[in-house]
Amino acid sequence: MRISIRQLQIIDAIVQTHSYSSAAERLHMTQPAVSMQMKNLESNIGLTLFERKGKHIVLTSAGKEVHRCSHNITVQYDDLLEAIHEIKELHHGRIKVSSATTANHLITQMIANFSKVHTGISVALDITNRQQLLTQLADMEPDIVLMGEPPTTMDVISEKLIPNPLVIIAHLEHPLASQDNIPFTDMEKYDFIIREEGSGTRATIERFFYERQIEFNSNLTMGSNEAIKHAVIAGLGLGIVSLHTLKLELEAEKLIILDVEHFPLQRYWHIVRRKGKHLLPAVAQFQKFMVQEAKRYAEGYQQFLKK
Ligand code: PGA
What we know:
It is built from 11 helices and 11 strands. It is an alpha/beta fold. Helix 1 crosses helix 2 and helix 2 packs across helix 3.
């Protein structure tokens, strides 16, 4: 006894449409081909599956029994096709990732480790500031974004990752370098080097000082965390940056984190995706990986926060 998947799909289609011609249309077949397949199947299994009731083709009682079992097979067959499609995409996908400048180190670590395991997936990365990330999200460009606060003005799906502590940094010989518990109000007396307009870090710092009515003095604006660190090391002022931008400098003892009241300022990294943008299996896989990696990454920074 031979029964093909195609024949089972035809049974499904006739049950749903109550007609051979509509079933044929649905399956992109001709009506005689559908009738022929059913005739062959019925004679092969020795059962009559359909009968005519008025204008409609309906299942016989034996047909109902057969359909109850055969329908499960067609559903599972569809699932199988879907799974094969997803496995193929998962192994050969291409992911467009955008990240906040400040998360540059974090995201590159994630991608490097992901690529070691998922060799068939290519990851295109764009590093830019918060303002640009918002524009990209509005245009539905990236598959996934790593950023500070998720936007509130568009439909997104966001997942909170790990803390993103902002710290105040100084060069090693700075008069505050050896002090503990520095009052936040003292910050009015110092000059800061600040990120460019559009940076999420900058917006957070400005809001924090403003809410506490502490004057924020800054004559130097720099377009990257790297530039800020160089300027701080050169003694041009204090900086406020994410701890996650500081690994190399802290390990090499090129600058120091000041012990200032209210700091580290606790922010969080978020994974953000636009609602309605198709979630490719490779992207879902990458997101899962980001969550695991981020935890490990955060642990690696704990040592720098101990006072
Ligand atoms: P940025 O990143 O300061 O590099 O813009 C932080 C954020 O997304 O808020």
